[in-house]
Write a structure and sequence with these properties.
Layout (H helix, E strand, L loop, with lengths): L15 E6 L4 H11 L5 E8 L3 H11 L3 E4 L2 H10 L6 E4 H10 L5 E4 L7 H9 L3 E4 L2 H18 L2 E4 L2 H9 L8 H4 L1 E8 L9 H4 L4 H5 L8 H9 L1 H13 L7 E5 L5 E7 L4 E5 L5 H9 L13 H4 L14 H11 L3 H17 L8 H11 L8 H22 L1
Parallel strand pairs: 1-2, 1-5, 2-3, 3-4, 5-6, 6-7, 8-9
Antiparallel strand pairs: 8-10, 10-11
Helix pairs in contact: 2-3, 4-5, 5-6, 6-12, 6-16, 11-16, 12-15, 15-16, 16-17, 16-18, 17-18
The structure holds nicotinamide-adenine-dinucleotide and magnesium ion.
Magnesium ion binds next to α7.
Length: about 400
């Protein structure tokens, strides 16, 4: 976060070149929507995507980036054919992603690839000292201490895009973002929508389908994060994310289920003041905040109608029906590679659920089993993290096969 390096208050209104990692996704498209509203401020330098070639071609024709990166060489070859009459250079693979994220002309990188695949290119942006807009929470969860150290070492500017963390960022004093004691913070109140199964009985959770899990009541998001929201693992990952970003511990972060998703999180101070950030559930608000920080720009989001809303509700999370929240807190306390193991097992279990190979209620079973088998080892290098991620995926796949 600015947190860590940038000179607070620098308002550079010159044209900024932006790379969007994960441009075809929900966050990527919302970022392009905000950028398109401000042609005098932002220019798209590079767009990247996994495999949606036609969509990427359409985005490239619209935003005319210098570079486009696809995950595979096959997808890149197809995109190159479609863009043969343009000046966009088409690259592929991790090398291409890292180049797009670290290029000297790039000012801001939106890290919006989903899952562990986002870690290496996000890290490339960090190491190149960019303004990094962090949507890809999995990267930070996997490698927390190493990632934050890389931010400091490179003098990068890390700004949280996850709506809750962006809310907390907005409620904290800029000069003490990573020093809660100095800021006078008593605790952080992390809000959660509760997901689509907030009121579903434990018995009924056994038979929920991927379509039901992806039908989030308030947010439109990619399928993986939608399932994470349904299991509350998303809140577990966000708990870990908050601890790293704001240099705090899980006992200082209390999850409040707030089904309206209007209060995006709160900070309570020692004098009893509670600051909250409110807004419609639209990711363009935190994205615009990160793109323009410390200035404010139009995000295309309308005014909040509190008269229409009338009431806000709050509940404690149900840890019995949604064990993932506690699994995440435990993994953070275990430390070392445990959060990377948790994340990898979750990615495997969620993919299996989305493919109809695993029951919804077996997602935490697979994660717990993987965590138990791979006790956290010291995470003193990224190589260790990548190896633990690989071992955890292998172990979790075995558990998925056993549960089918
Ligand atoms: P999404 O599935 O809609 O989009 C993911 C993007 O990543 C796509 O562009 C896809 O092509 C790309 N991608 C996927 N796998 C890849 C790979 N192996 N290599 C290269 N590119 C790959 O996901 P999303 O909902 O936009 O979420 C993106 C990230 O932002 C996630 O980490 C999520 O947790 C986080 N986030 C999302 C929201 C939201 O409202 N959608 C809110 C907060 C945080
Ligand atoms: Mg969130």
């Amino acid at each position: 976060m600015q947190t860590v390096s940038a000179e607070a208050g620098t308002a550079d209104s010159s044209l900024r070149q932006v790379t969007i990692l994960g441009a075809t996704g929900s966050i990527g498209l919302s970022t392009l929507d905000v950028i398109e509203r401000h042609p005098e401020r932002f220019r798209v330098f590079a767009l990247t995507a996994a495999c949606r070639v036609e969509e990427m071609a359409a985005l490239c024709r619209r935003f005319r980036p210098r570079m486009a990166v696809m995950a595979s060489t096959e997808a890149a070859d197809r995109l190159r054919d479609l863009l043969s009459n343009t000046s966009t250079e088409v690259l592929s693979g991790e090398e291409g992603l890292c180049l797009a994220a670290s290029h000297a002309e790039v000012h801001t990188v939106m890290a919006a690839i989903v899952g562990a695949a986002g870690l290496v290119p996000t890290l490339a942006a960090v190491r190149a000292g960019k303004r990094v807009l962090l949507a890809n929470k999995e990267a930070l969860v996997m490698s927390g201490a190493l990632f934050m150290q890389a931010v400091v070492d490179a003098g990068a500017e890390l700004l949280p895009i996850d709506s809750e963390h962006n809310a907390i960022f907005q409620c904290l004093p800029a000069e003490h973002l990573r020093d809660p004691a100095k800021a006078g913070v008593r605790r952080i109140l992390l809000t959660a929508s509760g997901g689509p199964f907030r009121q579903t009985s434990a018995a009924d959770l056994h038979s929920v389908t991927p379509e039901q899990a992806c039908a989030h009541p308030n947010w439109t998001m990619g399928r993986k994060i939608s399932v994470d929201s349904a299991t509350l693992m998303n809140k577990g990952l966000e708990l870990i994310e908050a601890c790293w970003l704001f240099n705090t511990s899980p006992d200082k972060v209390e999850v409040h289920v707030h089904p309206e998703s209007i209060i995006h999180s709160m900070v309570e101070y020692v004098d009893g003041s509670v600051l909250a950030q409110l807004g419609s559930p639209d990711m363009r608000t935190p994205i615009a905040n990160g793109l323009a920080w410390p200035e404010r720009i139009d995000a295309g989001v309308g005014s909040l109608d509190l008269f229409a809303l009338q009431k806000f509700h709050f509940e404690r999370p149900d840890f019995d029906r949604f064990p993932c929240l506690n699994l995440a807190a435990e993994a953070f306390k275990m430390g070392g590679s445990a959060p990377a193991v948790l994340n990898a097992a979750n990615e495997v279990a969620v993919a299996a659920f989305l493919e109809g190979r695993l029951r919804f209620t077996d997602i935490p079973v697979v994660i717990e089993g993987t965590l138990a088998a791979l006790a956290g080892v010291d995470a003193d290098s990224f190589e260790v993290i990548f190896e633990q991620d690989r071992l955890a995926r292998h172990h979790a796949e075995g558990l998925v096969r056993n549960r089918c």
